[in-house]
Amino acid sequence: MKKLLLYLIAFILICFIIPAMLTQRTISTSVNENFINNNSEENTTDISKNNEENYEYIKYGKINLLHKKTGQVEQVNIDEYLCNVVSAEMPADYEVEALKAQAIVARTYTIYKVLNKKHDNADICDDSTCCQAWISKEDRLARWEESKRESNWQKICNCVNDTKGKIITYNNQPINAFFHSNSGGVTEIPVNVWGGTGYPYLQSVETSGEDAYTQYSSEAILTQEELINKLKTKYNDISIDFAKNEDIKILEYTEGTRVKTVKFGNHELSGVETRTLLGLKSTNFEITKEGNNIKFSVKGYGHGVGMSQTGADSMAKQGNSFEEIIKHFYSGVEIKDVNVI
Predict the structure, then answer these.
(1) Domain that holds residue 121
(2) pTM of full prediction above 0.90
(3) Do 107 and 207 share a structural domain?
(4) Of 88, 101, 23, which Cα lies nearest the Cα of 321?
(5) 159 φ, ψ (degrees, to nearest 5)
(6) What pLDDT, on a 0 to 100 scale, did the predictor assign at position 52?
(7) 139: helix, coil or strand?
């Protein structure tokens, strides 16, 4: 009888009690692991946020900004300054990845200027014809629709802060990060704009989708007299026989399909000089005669070197990241933390 009772107790232990205990232990372990994993994910997120918020520049954290109109030099935090720059340089309704690319480009351009000073008493100025555009927060907000002011500003500052410390380098040095509004589909190399030897990271590249933007095309129609008068501001002896087609003719194009040399009567001008004298939006133009008028059909807006802003937005709309955008427009570059270069 005792043996039977022992067998019964052993049977109950093996079939019910021990499995129940093991199951409870497994559940407890699983719950504990899940708790640890969840905490780990939360901690990682918190650390990431904390690093972003507490990012410290070892150098270049503050810059001296020259306000050209007043002559005042102001020391500003670099990323606060970049919020003003990006809001002046790129529309707030552009894609986030395009705005991030612009923030990194502007930061790189700023640091390049710090290292290659143009102003004796400042690192950079707020004049777009000299350095890069800048606008005060108050003026920027005033130019936006009231309902979009705060959201636009926050969107731009988020893109600056999400890319804190990131710059574009070539051979571990900050690049001269030129940018412009619209390339007309193909960017230009700097030697065709400013001469010199150029930069290896600034090559001519094609970008699709730029024709969807208003900056892509424009035209200027000048009377014969207007054309002569504009050219005379530099070439007082200009003489054009408008009856001869050969007297107004594009002679040579650049690698970026822009005008390199154009003939106006007794003078041959560069495309860059023609753009300046006639007030054209780019050097990517064609010339046609319409009765007594001369028509310049223009593609693109700006010098065409480096990153096209509309091109960046077009790429972002196609799903490209800020890194892919930057590496499209600047050849052979890396995106690095400024603290490690």
Answers:
(1) 62-177+311-340
(2) no
(3) no
(4) 101
(5) -65, -35
(6) 54
(7) helix
In terms of residues, how long is the chain?
341
Q: Could you tell me if residue 294 is inside a domain? A: yes
Q: Is 230 in contact with 222 (CB distance < 8 Å)?
A: yes
Other Cβ atoms within 10 Å of 229 Cβ, number: 12
Return the pLDDT at 296. 98
Q: Are residues 281 and 328 in the same domain?
A: no
Residue at 41 is within a domain: no
Per DSSP, the residues of 225-275 read HHHHHHHHTT-TT----TT-GGGEEEEEE-TTS-EEEEEETTEEEEHHHHH
How far is Cα 37 from Cα 49, in angstroms, rounded to an integer? Answer: 18
Q: Which structure tokens are listed for 189?
A: 């190399």
pLDDT tens for 265-306 read: 999 999 999 999 999 999 999 999 999 999 999 999 999 999
Q: How many domains in the chain? A: 2
202 in a structural domain: yes
Q: Which residues of the chain have pLDDT under 70?
A: 1-53
Does 29 fall in a domain?
no
Structure tokens given for 177: 């990060």
pLDDT at 202: 97
